[in-house]
Amino acid sequence: MQCLQGSQNKLPGAALNIFREMVADGIQLNEITIVSILGVISQLSALRPGQETHCFALKVHLMKDSLVNSSIIDMYAKNGSIESSQKVFEQLQDKDTASRSAMISGYAIHGQGK
């Protein structure tokens, strides 16, 4: 998967461009792709693409996946929006270990680990 390779090769901008091309071309994306690109977005400290990816995940019904949810929580925290992390977390019907761990990590990033 080219998107993931870009992330691993320290080329997050290239990975984000490939992701955008995939969306524009109407390629059906899955949970793995979304989780991968959210990691890339976290490396870029780019809130807007993160918000767009969150909206895309909602649109294509990928928010039922625990890993997608925890990755979105993590992405918002790493991009400086702990409030958005909290909102996503609070809206989860099933708060599992992954989502709770993402929130704990987010609070720690923002100096709220107590």
How is the topology of this model organized?
Layout: H1 2-8, H2 12-24, H3 31-44, H4 47-59, H5 66-78, H6 82-91, H7 97-109
Helix pairs in contact: 1-2, 2-3, 3-4, 3-5, 4-5, 5-6, 5-7, 6-7
Quaternary assembly:
single chain
Helix content: over 70%
Number of helices: 7
Name the structural class: mainly alpha
What's the number of domains? 1
Protein name: Pentatricopeptide repeat-containing protein
Keywords: Repeat
Pfam families: PPR (PF01535)
Structural write-up:
Keywords: Repeat. This is Pentatricopeptide repeat-containing protein. The protein has 114 residues and is an all-alpha fold. It has one domain. Helices cover 73% and strands 0% of the residues. The chain has seven helices and no strands. It has helices spanning 2-8, 12-24, 31-44, 47-59, 66-78, 82-91, 97-109. Helix 3 runs parallel beside helix 5, helix 4 (47-59) runs antiparallel to helix 5 (66-78) and helix 6 runs antiparallel to helix 7 (97-109).
In short:
This protein is mostly helical and 114 residues long. The chain is 73% helix and 0% strand. Helix 1 packs antiparallel against helix 2 (12-24), helix 2 (12-24) packs across helix 3 (31-44) and helix 5 runs antiparallel to helix 6 (82-91).
Give a quick set of tags describing it.
114 residues; repeat; TPR-like_helical_dom_sf; 7 helices
